[in-house]
Amino acid sequence: MHDEPGEAPLYGEQTRRAIENFAIGGRPMPPSFIHALGLIKACAARVNGALGALPSATAAAIAEAAERVAAGELDGQFPVDVFQTGSGTSTNMNANEVIATLAGRALGEPVHPNDQVNRGQSSNDVIPTAIHLGAALALVGLDAELDALAEAIERRAAETADIVKTGRTHLMDAVPLTLGQELGGWAAQLRACRARLVDAGARLRRIAQGGTAVGTGLNTDPRFAEAFADELSRRTGLHFVPAPDFRAAIASQDTAVELSGQLRVLAIALLKVANDLRWMASGPTAGLAEIELPALQAGSSIMPGKVNPVIPEAVAMACVQVVGLDAAIALAAQDSRFQLCTMLPLIGADLLEQIALLSGACTALREKAIMGFRVNRAGLARGLARNAMLATALAPVIGYDRAAAIARRVLAEDRTVLEVAREETALGDDELRRLLRKGSEPF
Q: Which of 83, 146, 220, 286 is surrounded by the fewest CB atoms within 10 Å?
């Protein structure tokens, strides 16, 4: 990545060396990670100023410059590849150098990137903290999108609570349920995913900052960790606390692995919804055709009038990518030897990509599929009338074997269960209708 046209580099020699050494993926750290790093540097400067570790004017200049990084004003100044030194030292020094340059200009005197911007810090606690902070901030947006999607599904479930349809297991006809019940199951699944993410988020807000190189807090004020967590909490509106044990927080990435696993669960849940929508909308003449998804674009370059379930397909691809990223994060996190995990940049980048993909998937499903699909009531009713599995409702009265015989005749003769049951049982019409109605009524 090169600087924006007309934008002079603000970084120094450490960053230039990293650009030369790590020309591997052409993929810089995500902007949201850089913004989190800027917040960390701003909070650290304010705390160092308050504790007397930096002159107040220097601390203020560093904090102001770092806030510009946090605001996204300087994204073009962060070209270092994700595939770099495993501690993320190059990205940390990139931030230190950019902030030192800006702070020095404001002060009219040099600001040292290590001695002052990085005061009381190490890449080994800064980068793990940035992973947690970046993910925690991104989760706020995902939580809102996931909640909105669940609410939209619940609204559609309420609208379709009276529509009885054929249930399916193994992709084969099963006993009936209402469309509202089916959608309600999706919403409940997503609500459970959200609860898991909330639970993991509590551990995400335990941060490594203050542990410095190996978790012993060398070269930082003993008061720094608590003060930093308080300042970061004030600045973000989220409640951060120092990790219970800095050595564990720096040597491992268990919380990132946990969160990634819960994001994978959400991806699988969204895949279920997307695939159900695709099946339900299949056809429209030779498929299930239970619903009609919004027609968003032409589905074929050769078949005129064809419309495809493009949003569920796009969401499915995003979810598959999330599952793949989870595998990468797990493998990266196992590269923890003694006092440090040395694949931190990859973990940070992939975790943020997972969250961004899932946020976008939730939005797309809600706005362009769930809110706009139309129900084919007539088609659902036709399918239900010839659903042989309605014979299940007769089994408690006539027995499993006789009910199975009725089901086989219904399928073979393409007739209704009521018609065949009249011939196969001694039950009167009123009793048969009562039993079959019970089998197809919503719970």
A: 286
Bridge-based pairing of strands 340-341 and 291-292 is unpaired
Asked if pLDDT for residue 169 goes beyond 80, the answer is: yes
CATH 1.10.275.10 domain span(s) along the chain: 13-119
Q: What is the C-alpha separation between 31 and 349, in angstroms, rounded? A: 10
Nearest CA to 315 out of 352, 354, 270 is that of: 270
Task: Note the CATH number of domain 386-440.
Answer: 1.10.40.30
- For every residue of 197-209, DSSP letters joined together read HHHHHHHHTEE-T
Query: For residue 262, which of 199, 318, 315, 205 has the smallest C-alpha distance?
Result: 199
Catalytic entry in 32, 87, 260, 300: 300
Stretch(es) of the chain classified as CATH 1.20.200.10: 133-164+179-375
- CATH fold of 133-164+179-375 reads Fumarase C; Chain A, domain 2 (1.20.200)
Rounded to an integer, the average pLDDT of 83-92 is 98
Give the residue among 310, 321, 313 at the shortest CA–CA distance from 266.
Answer: 321
Which residues are within 8 A (CB) of 335 and not within 5 positions of it... i.e. 6 or more apart? 86, 341, 342, 343
- What are the tens digits of pLDDT across the range 354-390? 999 999 999 999 999 999 999 999 999 988 988 999 9
Q: What is the pLDDT of residues 338-351, one digit of tens each?
A: 999 999 999 999 99
Active site residue 170: yes
Question: Are the beta carbons of 102 and 10 closer than 8 angstroms?
Answer: yes
Set 170, 260, 336, 359: catalytic member = 170
Give the class (CATH, top level) of 13-119: mainly alpha
pLDDT at 2 over 50: no
pLDDT digit string, tens, across residues 259-302: 999 999 999 999 999 999 999 999 999 999 999 999 999 999 99
How confident is the prediction for the chain on average, in pLDDT?
96
Give the separation between CA 327 and CA 261, rounded to whole angstroms: 9
- The token pair that represents 382 in the structure block: 């036709």
Domain with CATH 1.10.40.30 in the chain: 386-440
Beta-carbon count within 10 A of 356 CB: 17
C-alpha–C-alpha distance, residues 297 and 277, integer Å: 17
SS3 119: coil
Has 2 been annotated as catalytic?
Answer: no
